[in-house]
Amino acid sequence: MSAYVRSATVRFGDTVALDGVSVNVPSGQIVAVVGGDGAGKSTLLRTLAREVALDAGTMSAPDKSDLGLLPAGPGSWAALTVRQNLEFVAGIYGRSGSDATARIDEMIARAGLTGAADRTASALSGGMRRKLAAAMAMIHRPSLLLLDEPSTGVDPVSRIDLWRMISEAAADGAAVLMSTTYLDEAERAGYLVVLERGRILAQGSYDDVHRGFTGTITRTADPVRPEWSWRRGHERHEYWPPGATPTNSSTVDPDLEDIVIALSLRRMLSTETGVSEVAP
Ligand SMILES: Nc1ncnc2c1ncn2[C@@H]1O[C@H](COP(=O)(O)OP(=O)(O)OP(=O)(O)O)[C@@H](O)[C@H]1O
After folding, report:
1. CA gyration radius for the chain?
2. 3-206: which CATH number, 1.20.1340.10, 3.20.80.10, 3.40.50.300, 2.60.40.1400?
3. pLDDT at position 84
4. Which residues line ligand 1 (CB under 6 A)?
5. Which of 9, 12, 46 to mutate to test the pocket of ligand 1 (most atoms within 8 A of CB)?
6. Which of 5, 37, 42, 54 most suits a substitution to test ligand 1, by most atoms within 8 Å of the C-beta?
7. Where is the ABC transporter domain (predicted)?
């Protein structure tokens, strides 16, 4: 079963956390939502999890018994062992007996936690704990999986385990919506949603987002317009709007990080402070 929000708006007092957002999450697909702090990523996930109500727009999602949520917090009980955490969640979903035990063993193995099954969650590393939380969200094979920054604080090796778990859930038919701040990782998702202060700046496959990006990015030690530049490694990248002729150094093929930063700057500087996008 797929899930969607259409023209979704969510307000918290004066803050518009989602502002007319439309996103489809088809079954079998991994949709990655990216964006900076406060972009609205958690609110989008929590809306589909029915934890946050829409102020306007519509949504469709399976009911709570058929969705799995990995929240932004720890996502497991510190005093319970890995196995007890999984048994507890399986019990909440009415799973027991040998099928449940087999599923728990399977998820412990998929999470690379076989050797840690009897350790309390409090004794796990941050990355192991995140994998446990992901396994807990998936234990009942939900048709919608909502993962809020599953890989934050997870080392590169454990991130491979996590991605395998997420890919397997999608291959089993789950619709997966995950948020991430790791843009290199987001490029691996089949579909991307770039959020910035509650609005969608771009969405589509990585190729769509890349192709749809208009403007030029240059690599420079000395940006002509510093407010339109950002640090990348030892150098700076600078954004030039469509039609502008960059007056400094070489053009780069933008990656997702460049595109997200350029789109965010474009929105922030041109729509909110009135700074002209037009190059000198
Ligand atoms: N319960 C709440 N009460 C008041 N404001 C909230 C609440 N939840 C979110 N917000 C505000 O809504 C906006 C979007 O927050 P959200 O947590 O969805 O962003 P995010 O992209 O997940 O950011 P982060 O990565 O920092 O968690 C922010 O300005 C945030 O302060």
Report:
1. 21
2. 3.40.50.300
3. 97
4. 12, 15, 17, 35, 37-43
5. 12
6. 42
7. 3-222
177 φ/ψ angles, rounded to the nearest 5 degrees: -120, 120
109-152 residue pLDDT tens: 999 999 999 999 999 998 999 999 999 999 999 999 999 999 98
At 164, list the tokens: 């395998």
Atom of ligand 1 nearest to the CA of 46: 18
275 has a pLDDT exceeding 60: no
Average pLDDT, stretch 208-231? 91
What average pLDDT does the segment 58-63 reach?
96
pLDDT of residue 248: 66
Q: Whole-model pTM?
A: 0.90
Residue 280: pLDDT over 50? no
Q: Which atom of ligand 1 is nearest to the CA of 39?
A: 21
Give the mutation target among 41, 151, 194, 200 for probing the ligand 1 site: most ligand atoms within 8 A of CB: 41
- For the chain, the domains span 3-206
Task: For residues 236 and 253, give the distance between their C-alpha atoms in angstroms, rounded to a whole number.
Answer: 14
- In contact, 176 and 147? CB cutoff 8 Å: yes
Residue 17 CA, ligand 1 centroid: distance in Å: 6
